[in-house]
Amino acid sequence: MQIHNYSLRTFGGNKKDARHARVHILIPSETGALLSKSGKWVNHLSKSIKRIQARATINLIQTYKMKPDARNHSRVPLHFDFHISAPKAIDGSPLNEISEKLTQTMDHYIQIAASHKLDQNADVLLVTNSETRKDRCDRIRDFIQTQVRLKVAVGNVSLYGGLEESNNDPED
Fold it and tell me: CB-based contacts of 126: which residues, under 8 Å, 6+ apart?
């Protein structure tokens, strides 16, 4: 996930004069867990956003895992809430007393596919379906491999919702 600061001022970080920002992340406990900063697996966590310069973008990285008994082919929501403090709201207040307001919310869905075998060396999973033409898949895979220089694994979503491994060789 990326966070972009569209404003003309820096925000985030731990300085007393900065606007503070935080992201709350939630995953349903019956399907998975999030890795917290302390190394524990939890279903809800809150992350402080590091300092973002004006007109700059940062990447927010979060590790999560699915439970082995999570229902196959289900869509799992990851819920994100973005909070930011008001400008100049921190005038000498302790960092734990800063009031942050919810400014944006987003749901991101992950489909569980028990049959997918993770390729540890792949950087990108390209997912196709029955309507994806072979030449289009090959062009996308070629672009990712040659222009972006990332290794690609290809999976196909079957008519019945399962994810099947596709041949990674573009010559076939």
Answer: 137, 140, 141, 144, 152, 153, 154, 155
Show pLDDT as tens, one digit a residue, over the chain (172 residues). 788 898 888 888 777 667 888 999 999 999 999 999 999 999 999 999 988 999 999 988 888 888 888 887 778 899 999 999 877 644 555 555 668 899 999 998 887 766 666 677 888 888 888 888 889 999 999 999 998 888 998 888 765 555 666 665 554 4
| Sign of the dihedral defined by the CA atoms of residues 113, 116, 121, 123, in that order | negative
Cβ 163 vs Cβ 111: under 8 Å = yes
Identify which of 155, 153, 150 has the alpha carbon closest to the alpha carbon of residue 165.
Answer: 155
Q: Where are the domains of the chain?
A: 2-111, 124-165
Distance between CA 131 and CA 124 in Å, rounded? 20
Helix/strand/coil (H/E/C) assignment for every residue in 26-88: ECCCCCEEEECCCCCEECEEEEECCCECCCCEEECCCCEEECCCCCCCCEEEEEEEEEEECCC
Summary count for the chain: helices (H), strands (E) = 1, 12
